[in-house]
Amino acid sequence: MRITLLDYGAGNVRSVVNAIEKLGGTIKPVIKPSDILDAEKLLFPGVGNYENMIRILNEKKYINPLREYLNADQPFFGICLGMQALFEGSQEDFSGHESLGVFKGMVKRFTTKFAVPHMGWNGVSLKKDSPVFKGIKADTKFYFVHSYHIVPEDESVILTTTNYDYEFVSSVQKGNIIGTQFHPEKSGDAGIRLLENFVFQKDLRDGKPVDIKGKGLSKRIIACLDVRANDQGDLVVTKGDQYDVRHKGNVRNLGKPVALARRYYEEGADEITFLNITGFRDFPLEDMPMIDVLEKTSKNVFVPLTIGGGIREYTDSNGKTYTALDVAARYFRSGADKISIGSDAVYIAEEYLKTGRKSGTSSIEQISKVYGNQAVVISIDPKRVYVHSPDDAKKHHVIKTRFPGPDNEIYCWYQCTVRGGRTTRELDAVSLARACEDLGAGEILLNCIDKDGTNSGFDLELINAVKNAVSIPVIASSGAGCEDHFLQVFENTSAEAALAAGIFHRKEVPIRDVKTYLADNHIEVRLKT
Ligand code: 1PR
């Protein structure tokens, strides 16, 4: 079966292509407007920013052929922005460009005290029969990542709804036209099944009303792979002990990145994060192995992939300058869904806090504008600094701690570091997180150097301090040593996700045991069936 793919050039379409090809389908990309009308089945995966997408569709003169194709009720599957484009406009668009308007209604921003973007695995309640849901169990969860959702005027087009503080429409169908807010290509086996149904079912049309309830949003469990070349020059997954990755002088070698990522996908990881931990000194576009890792991983791993390390502006030895956006674009094209910025975020926040002005040119602003906030993660590497009194660190966000310092200090603040923890800066983690959210970041990956590799549990005080200061999702990281540490994070903080490395690499606790333990203790998780 030949699927025509509408790729407007922003975001990761590699996973969709990989999924279709894995299913035995072939992909024909849309190169010119008439390719849309020639399609047998048209797939439109959209990710990023609505305004950017609709501007490109107008510039490429795709609007009229798309309308003609859709008005003829030809098979269409829109994912995320690809579905939102069917409506009359979005609150994310101030450009005045024309939308498709094939379905009546608007795309609106979430109005909730919950973290936005809505990010993670959530259930769907099915409102009518549809061949695209054939063989998919009622309690299946799909991967969502968005700050805006559709509000259709015509209720008959609603295929599923999902609960995130309130009920919103998470997919639509009218005849052969289907759209999902969630990403099937990032939703593991169930998502692949949905795409398979679209590709191979002859009759796709929607049927009778039903009312099948779905489950709620899961807490995410993320496997993290710190990657670097070892002394023999092989790219390995390593693991630090408070960021020191050497044991008896050698870089610890805990496996190969592609193979480990696949193992974690099969064990039920909700996301995989790769951190190129020497990225601060190398130039990632010359570091082709990381690109190769992403390309190979995305062939078989259908959950979100994050890549961090070295996302910043760079001038090569010939004097050619690459923007952080160029670096990120290369990673997105290779299969990454999110990029994570460490050192550069600290410098950007320092400048922003000093001047009070958004330059518009920082990596955070540039990448979030083109690829959407949800694609920009800020990786924070803080260290505790103990003080006797908040007056001893007036410029910083100081907390009272239950774990006194070496001189019995009962206060501390969390000092930001750059260059893999090697250099400390006069900025605290809470201020960094707030500044980055302001600049357009969509998620915080909150490491903790004191806890990293210690197996002694997460730093709950740090997580609460940062989580209470921002309204974007926070991933708790560093220190997991047993199943109960994950439970403590979710019971004592409102972090949306927990990330671990060492215990998974050393096979001390399998991911599925963590999830079963959480489920037994009434934490909502996605259990792989
Ligand atoms: O500064 O933008 O180039 O990004 C560099 C990235 O590499 C940052 O995200 C930084 O956190 C990461 N990094 C740099 N050096 C190290 C190191 O370990 N020497 N790793 C490093 C950070 C922390 C987590 C780890 C958790 C969980 N590692 O990734 O996986 O602490 O570990 P655990 O469960 O074993 O306790 P830039």
Question: Can you describe what's shown?
Answer:
With 529 residues, the protein is an alpha/beta fold. The chain folds into two domains: 2-212, 3-Layer(aba) Sandwich (Rossmann fold); 220-520, Aldolase class I (TIM Barrel). The strands form seven sheets. The chain has a nine-stranded mixed β-sheet. Strands 14-18-19-22-23-28-29-30 form an eight-stranded parallel β-barrel, surrounded by nine helices. Strand 20 (314-315) and strand 21 form a beta hairpin. Helix 10 crosses helix 12 (429-439) and helix 14 crosses helix 16. The longest helix has 13 residues, at 188-200. The mean pLDDT is 95. The structure holds ligand 1PR. The site of ligand 1PR has 33 residues, from strand 14, strand 22 and helix 10.
| Helix content range | 25-40%
Counted by DSSP, the helix tally is 16
Whole-number count of domains:
2
Strand order, sheet with most strands: 2-1-3-4-12-11-10-7-13
* Distinct ligand kinds: ligand 1PR
Which CATH top level class of the largest domain fits? Answer: Alpha Beta
Span between termini: 28 Å
Q: Beta fraction of the residues?
A: 25-35%
How would the global form be characterised?
globular
- Which CATH architecture of the largest domain? Alpha-Beta Barrel
- Sheet having the most strands: 9 strands, mixed
Cα-atom radius of gyration: 23 Å
Quick check: average pLDDT?
Answer: 95
- Residue stretches low in confidence (pLDDT < 50, at least 5 long) are none
Q: Could you provide a short overview of the structure?
A:
This protein has 529 residues and is of the alpha/beta class. The protein is built from 16 helices and 30 strands. The strands form seven sheets. It has a nine-stranded mixed β-sheet with strand order 2-1-3-4-12-11-10-7-13.
